[in-house]
Design brief:
324 residues, alpha/beta, TIM Barrel, ten-stranded mixed sheet, 11 helices, 12 strands, globular
């Protein structure tokens, strides 16, 4: 191995062109999935207070935004729904005319090339704000699986290209896979939120999706942030049950687990650059403390460098415009 002065690592950093030629990790618009929050009504465009630049949109407004994405090179969207009414079992989640199902049909009509990913979880739809069936203050695992399976089938029938269960119930990937197959939907892939942690980074999302738990928290089903080996077990279980893609959520505090997932599994690895990560950058930029574009690109490059094949990010549209 050569040593200084024969080896001068700065030689390849001298110019923009040289740096670009030897760059190991690059971002492209095709790496991103852009999340949206869809609500009932027409002409609705309500900005989420804690997420500047993110809106709760009616279907007509959502379609207007989605039509622009192919031109930017963004291939996919992820949909979350705000129901007309909530109830203990989140019935609008698996109603054929539920808000997300309406949005999926409209998007596929307006922009058929756009990949539509359906988030499968009950928290936005239940009056208690938890991700499953609740009895006596406990979130029940197995009764929830049937509802998640129904929700997945209804979304796929409405046009979802990918089903993405985010609830963290044990066995939900297998239950969803069986239900899709039984309804002649065997070609619909599952993007499993496999290692989803009980994180403090979700606060702004809960405002956007109106999904704050009305009692307790989600630590009995979402993962303990301290547990990396358990995350690998969760991913392995989802793979065994039929997941086609695996996810680590959040991204920034879990870059080590993105790397471990990339090394341990051959499936596409997805990372969710979550609402709190987005909002911290936006707040600091609005205060003039950071260069927003530079910081966003650095964060997302770090997530990609850690091993993510795809990144779910609220920054996606801006990034697509910033990239050369």
């Amino acid at each position: 191995m050569s040593v200084f002065p024969a080896s001068r690592l700065r030689r390849l950093r001298r110019t923009d062109t040289l740096r670009a030629m030897v760059r190991e990790t690059s971002l492209a618009p095709g790496d991103f999935i852009l999340p949206f929050f869809v609500t009932h009504g027409r002409g609705v465009r309500d900005e989420v207070r804690s997420m500047p630049g993110v809106f709760q949109l009616s279907v007509d407004e959502l379609v207007r935004e989605v039509r622009e994405l192919p031109g930017l090179g963004i291939p996919a969207v992820l949909l979350f729904g705000l129901p007309a009414a909530k109830d203990p079992h989140g019935r609008e989640a698996y109603d054929k005319d539920g808000i997300v199902q309406q949005a999926m049909r409209a998007i596929k009509d307006a922009s058929p090339e756009t990949i539509v990913v359906g988030d499968v979880c009950l928290c936005e739809y239940t009056d208690h704000g938890h991700c499953g069936v609740v009895e006596n203050g406990q979130v029940l695992n197995d009764p929830t699986l049937e509802l998640l399976a129904q929700m997945s089938v209804v979304q796929a029938q409405a046009g979802a290209d990918v089903i993405a269960p985010s609830d963290m119930m044990d066995g939900r990937v297998g239950a969803i896979r069986r239900a899709l197959d039984e309804h002649q939907l065997a070609d619909v892939p599952i993007m499993a939120y496999s290692a989803k942690f009980a994180s403090g980074f979700y606060g702004p999302f809960r405002e956007a999706a109106d999904s704050t738990p009305q009692f307790g928290d989600r630590r009995s089903y979402q993962m303990d942030p301290a547990n990396g080996r358990e995350a690998m077990r969760e991913i392995a279980q989802d793979v065994a049950e039929g997941a086609d893609m695996i996810m680590v959520k959040p991204a920034l505090a879990y870059l080590d687990l993105i790397r471990r997932a990339r090394e341990a599994f051959d499936l596409p690895v997805v990372a969710y650059n979550v609402s709190g990560e987005y909002s911290m950058v936006k707040a600091a930029a609005q205060n003039g403390w950071i260069d927003e574009q530079r910081i966003v690109l650095e964060i997302l490059t770090g997530i990609k460098r850690a091993g993510a094949d795809l990144i779910i990010s609220y920054h996606a549209r801006d990034v697509a415009k910033w990239l050369p």
